Amino acid sequence: MAPELDTDSRAFPCVPPSDLDDPRVIVEHDWAAFRAVEQMTNHWDRPGWSDQRRVYYWMLTHANAPELVRRAEYCQGSLEHLGMDFVPSDGLHVTMPRVGDAELVSMAQIQSLRASAADTFFRGFRVLAHPLAGSRGAVRFSLSPWRPLVRLHTMLRALGEQAGAPGGKPTSVFRPHLGIAYNNRGRSAAPVIEAVSQLRGLPPVELEITSVELVELRRQDNAYRWETVFTLPLQPAAPSSVL
Questions:
Q1: Model-level pTM greater than 0.85?
Q2: pLDDT single digits (tens) 205-228
Q3: How far apart are CA 136 and CA 113, in angstroms?
Q4: Distances (CA, A) of 148 to 52, 110, 121, 128, 154
Q5: Cα dist. 133→143, 158, 162, 224, 236 in Å?
Q6: Which is nearest to 117 in space by CA: 149, 158, 150, 146?
């Protein structure tokens, strides 16, 4: 069973969908939350971040998913007039748990995390990336189903806790998504919502999740960049996980 997701103002949407498995429910819930946004904020205006900061995160990366890259680039082309910061094709990712700031996580903890991860059994799975919705600071694909992503997040957080890493937000506020553009200034949300609405008829892209990466993340030129510390392969997906 996946853990319960809580209503929390730190998350977007702050209220989770009523069903973690039904694509229709998830997609409509994301869209309703985005349509309710009146003012968008600068994604990069976050206290504590600088060009020098390095943070360890678990991430799902998708640079080698050509259909997703093509779909993201098509959507970005249609949003170009908005002047947002587009996620580069080799930077497409789903953020999973934070392990901790690099200055607070020792190499011994990283090695402990790696050893524990190697002994962990978790099956791969498939998800759909649905165009298109957003948040107060970004435009992003909705993902469905959420349940396997929430379970993976829970497992990765537990590994970090076993290694004594500082960690980040709990799984209860996790909202799976895949960003394609970051808003870089305060603005009315209405023109963004209108532009995004024109792309919602595109079919979803299927993604096969076969591994998760521990990365050292940084900000660079209004984008997220990273160095991979190690990759955790997942076990082959069960036939029932095919969407």
A1: yes
A2: 999 999 999 999 999 999 999 999
A3: 33
A4: 34, 25, 14, 12, 10
A5: 10, 30, 35, 20, 30
A6: 158
